[in-house]
Structures are given as C-alpha cells and as structure tokens.
Design a protein that fits this description.
Blueprint (H helix, E strand, L loop, with lengths): L8 H4 L4 H17 L5 E2 L8 E2 L10 E9 L3 H8 L5 H13 L5 E11 L4 H18 L2 E9 L9 E12 L14 E6 L8 H11 L7 E2 L4 E2 H5 L7 H10 L2 E6 L4 H7 L6 E6 L7 H10 L3 H7 L4 E7 L4 H10 L4 E9 L9 E4 L4
Parallel strand pairs: 4-5, 11-14
Antiparallel strand pairs: 1-2, 3-6, 4-6, 7-12, 7-13, 8-9, 10-12, 11-13
Helix pairs in contact: 2-5, 4-5, 9-11
Protein name: Phosphoribosylformylglycinamidine cyclo-ligase
GO biological process, one term: 'de novo' IMP biosynthetic process
Pathway: Purine metabolism; IMP biosynthesis via de novo pathway; 5-amino-1-(5-phospho-D-ribosyl)imidazole from N(2)-formyl-N(1)-(5-phospho-D-ribosyl)glycinamide: step 2/2
Length: 357
C-alpha cells in the first residue's frame, strides 16, 4: 500500500480479507490430506460436496450427525501458543460420538471464530483437525473462519464443528441390545481429553497458583504439556470392535463423567456395576482432587478419571475385545458387568465402586 492509499473500511474495523485468504492457502495442504474418495472438488467453494452414491450399497442407511466444540481447553493452547493439537480434541469430540452407535464418520466441517486472523495460527489449528480426520478415516469437507474484532481479543479463538456418518440399520448398536451378563470393557483415556477444563483451570491456576511451565514430576511433563495432551481417537478401533465382536453398546465418556455417560446406553431392564479397582487413576486426576480438595463424587461427575470410551460386550467376546483393542494400541480391560435391574441398583443406573480394593 502506498502512502496515498487508504485501508478499506472493513480493514479499518479490524477485519482483514487478505489475512483470511492467506490462511486458506496455508491450510490447503492439510485439508488435502483429510480426503476420502467420495469428496468432490476442494476447499474454497460455498459448500463441500460428498458423493452420496456410495450409500446405494447400503440396504437401509441411517445417517448420524453430531456437533460439538473443544470448550475452555482452547485457553491452554492460546496461553502456550501451541495450536496444532487442539484439532484432535475437536475431531475426537465429534467422531467418537457417532461411533458409539456403530456409525462410520464420513465427513466433518469446522468453524473457527477469532479476534484476529493470524494465518499461521489458523493453519496450525486446521492442520491438527486434518491430521485427526485422517487418523479417524473422516474427510474434512470444509469449514469457516470468522474474524470477530471487538467480540474476541486478537489472540483469542474458539473452534467447533459438525460431522455426519452412516450405519446400516440392522447394524445399529445401543441400549436395546444390552442384556444381563454383558461385560463392561473400558478403554483408557489419554488424559482429561476435552472436558472438565473449567474445574482443572480453577484448581491449577486459581487455587494452586501453578504456572503452565511448572514441571510436575507426577506427570513427567510440564503442567501445560499435560493439559494440552490431545484427546485419544477411538473411531477406527471401535468400528473394528463392532465388526468383529458382539458389542451391544458403547459410550463416549465426555462431560458428565463415566457413570452419567454410560447410563445413556443402559436400559431400564438392567443395572451396571463398574469396579474402580480394575484400573489406576492417572496422576492428573489425583492432582485435581488433592490440590483442589475435590471430592470423589465431584471428580467423577466432571472428569473421565482415566476411561475415555466404554463398550458393553457379550461375555464370550470380552477377552477378544480387549485383545483386539490392544492390537490397535488402545489399553483396555474388563471393568464391570451388567445384571438385571435391582442387582447393582435401580434399572438404568450405573454404580461405581471399589469391589476388590
């Protein structure tokens, strides 16, 4: 711009069209890595296109959809100036909500709102989203980056998205298949995942006054590194689990904790007992409890306590399920059982206890 040129009114208000265009150019490389054969065209259009003729091979395809965000974990990424992992949290929150019904996630779209478009930062966020999509076998079909000066500070942003998947109607899993005798197969989380960060931030930064660069021996990392650990993706391992075992239901352990999320797939005809003593709670959860004087009830209500996904499996397939998940790099174990309503509690409920402690 020469000395005689004036910035556009839009630029003067804080919105840069040029920065947005630059961000799109930087992210194209990563979006291209998150494709499926059914994707038509590339990014830059008004809508993403997906060839639905692939669904003609289904007898009765059911479409599944989910929408979610990352929550206040984005503040950790912003404070650490590390932006290429938060996409895993977004993708995990989306696609693993679909897989619990047996659906294969086909594609997703993202939405990034920021106070100021910094092309390299936006591209880093999209890089993480695209890498996670590739790991989950999901196409990143498109998205939107919105610049909101005055609403968000220049270094602030938030991310959200939606995803669509498909499952054959007679392959749908859920509460109606669960029966007495089924076993609870727990799958280890990678940490806090993307839930309960309001509690964690209150404890670590408010009560304990810890800094993000504080090295924490119990964690073997700095506090910031531990808090930014990406959400584990269970999509492809769980789809394989459904195909190769008699898995009757699954639950993605997100906001609300293990018991509340598992109850969402427990019918009124049964009750479930989960034995806490079958796993050791990771140190990050003990630190939240100890530093914040958080009760066990409150901790389990807000955090996953080390279990990111749960499957309810036919007892004859329990060992095979644990072994299969292990082959996919997912630590899994039998953590409880399903019984008739009233045995472990009222119908439709989940009880957590230390049975063998």
């Amino acid at each position: 711009m020469t000395s005689t040129q004036q910035p556009s009114a839009y630029a003067a208000s804080g919105v840069s069209i040029e920065a947005g265009d630059r961000a799109v150019e930087l992210m194209k490389e990563w979006v291209d890595k998150a494709r499926r054969p059914e994707v038509v065209g590339g990014i830059g259009g008004f809508a993403g296109l997906f060839d639905a003729s692939a669904l003609k091979d289904y007898r009765r395809p059911l479409l599944a959809t989910s929408a979610d965000g990352v929550g206040t974990k984005v503040q950790i990424a912003q404070r650490m100036d590390v932006h290429d992992t938060i996409g895993y949290d977004l993708v995990g929150m989306l696609v693993d909500d679909l897989v619990v019904c047996g659906a294969e996630p086909l594609f997703m779209t993202d939405y990034i709102a920021c106070g100021k478009v910094v092309p390299e930062r936006i591209a880093a966020v999209v890089k993480g989203i695209a890498q996670a999509c590739a790991e989950a076998g999901t196409a990143l079909l498109g998205g939107e980056t919105a610049e909101h000066p005055g609403l968000l500070h220049p270094d602030e942003y938030d991310v959200a998205g939606s995803t669509t998947g498909v499952v054959e109607a007679d392959a749908l899993i859920g509460a109606e298949l669960v029966r007495p005798g089924d076993v609870v197969v727990a799958m280890a989380s990678s940490g806090l995942h993307s839930n309960g960060y309001s509690l964690a931030r209150h404890v670590f930064f408010g009560q304990a006054q810890w800094s993000l660069d504080r090295h924490v021996p119990e964690l073997g990392a700095t506090l910031g590194e531990a808090l930014l650990t990406p959400t584990r993706l269970y999509t492809l391992p769980c789809l394989d689990l459904v195909r190769r075992t008699r898995t009757h239901a699954m639950s993605h352990v997100t906001g609300g904790g293990l018991a509340a999320n598992l109850e969402r797939v427990v019918p009124d005809t049964v009750s479930v007992r989960v034995d806490r003593s079958t796993w050791t709670r990771p140190a990050i959860f003990d630190l939240v409890s100890d530093l914040g004087d958080v009760s066990q009830h409150d901790l389990e209500e807000a955090l996953n306590i080390g279990v990111g996904m749960v499957a309810l499996v036919d007892p004859d397939d329990a060992d095979a399920a644990v072994r299969l998940l292990g082959e996919h790099g997912i630590q899994a174990w039998v953590a409880g059982e399903v019984a008739e309503a009233g045995v472990h509690g009222p119908g439709g409920t989940v009880t957590l206890e230390n049975r063998h402690a």
